[in-house]
Amino acid sequence: MTAIPDKPALEGLEAKWGAVWEQNGTYAFPREGATAAEVYSIDTPPPTASGSLHVGHVFSYTHTDTVARYQRMQGKRVFYPMGWDDNGLPTERRVQNYYGVRCDPSLPYVEGFVPPHEGGDGKSIKAADQQPISRRNFIELCERLTVEDEKQFEDLWRTLGLSVDWNQSYRTIGAESLRASQLAFIRNVERGEAYQAQAPTLWDVTFRTAVAQAELEDRDQPSAYHTLSFHRADGGGDILIDTTRPELLAACVALVAHPDDERYQPLFGSTVRTPIFDVEVPIVAHHLAKQDKGTGIAMICTFGDVTDVVWWRELDLPNRAILGFDGRVLREAPEAITSEAGKEAYAQIAGKTVFSAKQTMVELLQASGELTGEIRKITHPVKFFEKGDKPLEIVSTRQWYIVNGARDEALRERLLAHGRELGWHPDFMRVRYENWVEGLTGDWLISRQRFFGVPLPVWYPLDSEGNPVFDAPILPAADQLPVDPSSDVPAGYTAEQRGVAGGFQGEVDVMDTWATSSLTPQLAGGWERDPELFDLVYPFSLRPQGQDIIRTWLFSTVLRSELECGQLPWKNAGISGWILDPDRKKMSKSKGNVVTPAGMLEQHGSDAVRYWAASAKLGTDASFDPQNPTQIKIGRRLAIKLLNAAKFTLGFDASGVGTVTEALDRGMLAGLARVVDDATKAFEAYDHARALEVTESYFWTFCDDYLELVKERAHGAAGDDGTGQPRASAVTALRAALSVFVRLLAPFLPYATEEVWSWFGEGSVHQAAWPVAAETRELAGADADAELLGLVGSALVGIRGAKTDAKASQKTPVTLAVVHAPAADRDRLQLAAGDLAAVGRISELRVEAAEVDAVTVAEIQLEQAEA
C-alpha cells in the first residue's frame, strides 16, 4: 500500500504505474501450468508501422484493452500480444519520402550507404529526384525506419495503458513471420490451393504492381461518351456503340448485347469490322450487357474494365491486350491488325500514355468519319488501387493466386458457414462478410511486384534455351525456410547456375501484405514453432478489428485457417466503428483530417482519452472535435472524482468495520450489486460501453448522494446509539463500495484505479478479482432495499433546491422540513430520515404520506440568522 497524497492528481500516473507494471510483469501471459480452458487469447491487429498512429487507433485499441482487462480480472490467463505490420507498400512509400530514394533492383549493393535525405515526410522530393539504390540497400532502409517507428508506437501504446504482454510481439517481416508465411504458402501449393497463371490483372501503373479485388475502391471521375461506327461484314450498314475508352479500340475482340435485346438478336453470330483498324470481330450475347446503357451494345476490349475480363473469360475470346506495365500502349500491334492503314494508325498511338492515345484516336476517328455525333461528357465511377492516384488498368501478367471460393462452390459454402458460426459483435457486421464472400469474382491474387515483403519461396528451372519452366516450380523444404529466391540457391543447384540455360531463376515477386497478415493467429501463437503455445491459444478467443477490413483481413484469415486446418481461427470478432471529424467525415490520412493522439494524451491524460474511446459501442462511429473534446473532459472529471472520493472514503476511522446494519447503507450496496450484474452481462456480450455507462451512472449517485448522506454518520457525528455500529456500518459500506467501484472502472481508467487501489488494496487492481454481485448482496442482506438511495436522494435534491431558491447557503440550518412521499415510500424514507436530517442540518424532519407521484419537499423553514 502507498500513502494517500494530500492532493491526489492524475498528472504523472502514467509514468509512475507504467514502470511498476513493467517491473512486476503485471500483464505477462502466465503460461506455466495453463490449460486451454483457462486462456483468453486476442488476435491483436498489428498496426502498419509507417508514419504515426492516429486517434482512430486509440479508439479501437482501447475497446480491445477493456476486454483484455475484464477477462484478466475474471481469472483468465490473457494472451494479449502485439504485432507490427511492417512489410508492404505503405512502408516502401514512407522510406522513399523519408530518405529520398527509390529502389532499382538492377543496381549493385553499396556497403555503408548513406541516404541523401533523412527526416520529415520528404514529400517535397519529386520521384524523379529520388536517388536509385539497390534492392538490398532499399530493404535495409525499410528495416531501419520501421524499427524506429515501432519504438515510437510502443511508447504511445504504453502511455495509453494497453495491457499488452510486450514479450509476445512479432514483426510481419521478422524471421519467424517469414518462415510461417512461406511454410503456409508451400502447403497451399502442395495441396493445390495456390497456383500460378497468366491472366488479366488489375494493375497500378504508378506503383507497377498487381492489385487484388479487396484493395479496390471506386472514385467518381470525369469522362465522356464517344459514339463509334462498326461496319457490318454483310454490308447491312453500321452498328453504333458508345464507349468511354476509344483508346482501346485496337484491343477490341467482340461486340456484346443482352440475349433478350430484340434489337440485336438477329445479329448474334454475325461479325462486324472495327473502325480505323478494320479487324473482324463477332457479335455475341451475354447477360451482363445492359440494354438501357448507351446504344445497348458495347465493345469488349482486352481489357477496359473488370466486366471485360468476365466477358473474355466466359465467352472464350482472344486476348489482344495493348497496354503495358507502365500504362503506355505497347509498341507492337496485335496480330489481328493486318491492313497497312490499321498498322499505320496503331503506330500513331504506340508508346503513348492512355490519355494521349485517347486524344489521338479521337482525332483519327473524326478524320475517318467513324465518330458519330457529339462527344458527351459524363462522370462515372472508376476503379482505383486504394493507395493509388491513377485509375487502374488491366494487363496480362503471370501471377500467383490462392483459391478463395470464387470458383469453388464447396469452399464458398464452408466459408459462409464459418461466418455463421463466428460470434459477431455487433451481429449486423456479419452481413458485410457474407456479401463479400458471395460477391467474389476471382481467386485471391497474392503476388506483388514490390521489394519489401515476404519473398515467394519459389525458383523455376531453365530449359536448354534458358527459358523458365513455370509449370515446374522448385519449392524449398520446410527446414530451409525462410528463403529469398533472389539470393538463395535451391537444393541440387549451385550459385553459378543462376540465370544459365539448364540452371534456375528465382522468383522476384513478394507476397501481398495480406498474405502475411492473414496468418496473424499463427504468427502470434507460435504455429509450427511452439506447438504447446499454439494449442493453448488457438483458436483465439477474439479478433478485434475495423469494419473497413472485413473483406481483407477478416476474410483472408478465415480462408487461411479453413485451408490449413478446417476451422475458424477465433470464436468472436469485435468490429469497431470509425472516427469521424466534426463534419461527420471519416478520419483518414489521405483526407488530411486525422488527429495524432500524443498531444491528447499529454493534455488530458490517458484515462480521460480512454473514457472517450470506451464510451462508444462496437460497430458505432464516433465523432471527435479536437477543439471541443467534451467526452474527454467528462472522462477526466470522472477520474479526478474517483481519486477524491477514495481519499474521502478512506479518511474515516475504520475501526469496528465488519457488518452493515443501516438501511441506507444496505440499500446502496443492493443497488451496487445490480450494477455489478449489469456490467458483467454487458462485458460478456462485448458491450464495454454499456458496462461503463451503468458503472459511471451509479458512481455519480454514490458520490453526489450517498457520500453526502452518510458523511456525518461516518464521522460519528450523527446517528450515535452508543454502540458505534451506525458509524461502523457506514464506513464498512463505503469501503466495500469503493473496492467494487475501483474494480468496475479498472478496465476503463487503469491509472486512476491503480493509484486508488494502492491506497488500500493488495497487489495490482488489474490482477484483482472482478466483483461478484452475490458477495455485495450478502453484505447488504437479502431484504435490502435497492431503491432506497434513489428515494432519499430525491428528497436531498428537494431540500437543496429549497435552500437554493431561498438564496441560502447549503449549510444553513433548517428548523422544519416536511417531505411528502407516495404512501408506499413513506416508511422506506423514514428508515433513512436520520441521515437526511444530518446532511440537511434539519432539526425536525417529517416524512408524510401524500397523494404525490414522487418525493417532494412540501415545506421548509430555515433558521433565521442572528443579527
Distance between the termini: 51 Å
Which CATH architecture of the domain at 1-10 and 593-784 is right? Answer: Orthogonal Bundle
Radius of gyration: 35 Å
Shape descriptor: elongated
Helix percent reads: 25-40%
Strand content: 15-25%
CATH third-tier fold name of the domain at 1-10 and 593-784? Isoleucyl-tRNA Synthetase, Domain 1
Compute the number of helices: 25
**Mean pLDDT across all amino acids:** 92
Largest sheet: 7 strands, mixed
What structural category do the secondary elements indicate?
alpha/beta
The CATH superfamily of the domain at 1-10 and 593-784 appears as Isoleucyl-tRNA Synthetase, Domain 1
Uncertain segments: none
What is the CATH class name of the domain at 1-10 and 593-784?
Answer: Mainly Alpha
Give me some keywords for this one:
four-stranded antiparallel β-sheet, Isoleucyl-tRNA Synthetase, domain 2, seven-stranded mixed β-sheet, single chain, Isoleucyl-tRNA Synthetase, Domain 1
Overview of this structure, please?
By secondary structure, the chain is an alpha/beta fold. Among the domains are: 1-10 and 593-784, Isoleucyl-tRNA Synthetase, Domain 1; 230-377, Valyl/Leucyl/Isoleucyl-tRNA synthetase, editing domain (Isoleucyl-tRNA Synthetase, domain 2, Alpha-Beta Complex); 808-866, no CATH class. The protein is built from 25 helices and 29 strands. The strands form ten sheets. Strands 9, 10, 11, 12, 13, 14 and 15 form a seven-stranded mixed beta sheet that branches. Strand 1 (39-41), helix 2 and strand 2 form a beta-alpha-beta unit. It is elongated and about 115 Å long. Keywords: Aminoacyl-tRNA synthetase, ATP-binding, Cytoplasm, Ligase, Nucleotide-binding, Protein biosynthesis.
